[in-house]
Design a protein that fits this description.
The protein has four helices and five strands; from the N terminus they run αββαβαββα. By secondary structure, it is α+β, with helices and mostly antiparallel strands. A five-stranded mixed sheet has the order 2-1-3-4-5. α3 links the parallel β3 and β4. The protein is globular and about 40 Å long. The structure holds tetrahydrodeoxyuridine. Tetrahydrodeoxyuridine (THU) binds next to α2.
């Protein structure tokens, strides 16, 4: 794993430790790399009203965009599941708004990783172009 990717993993693991997931027990950490080399993290945040849960990926994007970043290179997602988790459908659409070709690294706490990208996971995003 390249140094930059290792940094993403380290930051995503830190973010995962801050996940608020008392209902599912499924903690997720995300680390988003901007074009300028900044890493912005997210973790999932659940609620007693279950449908209000927000995924780690969207937390990272919302934080980043609201802080003025719009160009993203890569996202790393880490969970504790032995089978690597891919981003949910809502997150795929949300992320494709900013970079439909985003590089994605899936990782787990056991050290397993897989490189993929959003074009593979979400080849036909919804858009408003007529
Ligand atoms: N979750 C994420 O954070 N990212 C995903 O892509 C899928 C699911 C969270 C939402 C919820 O808090 C928990 O994982 C179980 O669904």
């Amino acid at each position: 794993m390249a140094k930059e990717e290792y940094n993403l993993l380290r930051e995503a693991l830190k973010a995962r430790s801050r996940a608020y997931a008392p209902y599912s027990g499924f903690k997720v950490g995300a680390a988003l790399l901007t074009d300028g080399g900044k890493i912005i993290t997210g973790s999932n945040i659940e609620n007693a009203s279950f449908g209000l849960a927000i995924c780690a990926e969207r937390v990272a994007f919302v934080k980043a965009v609201s802080e003025g970043h719009k160009n993203f290179k890569e996202l790393l997602i880490v969970t504790g599941a032995s089978k690597l988790s891919t981003p949910c459908g809502a997150c795929r659409q949300f992320m494709s708004e900013f970079n439909p070709k985003l590089k994605i690294i899936l990782a787990n706490t056991g050290g397993k990783t897989l490189k993929t990208n959003l074009s593979k996971l979400f080849p036909k995003p919804f858009g408003l172009k007529k």
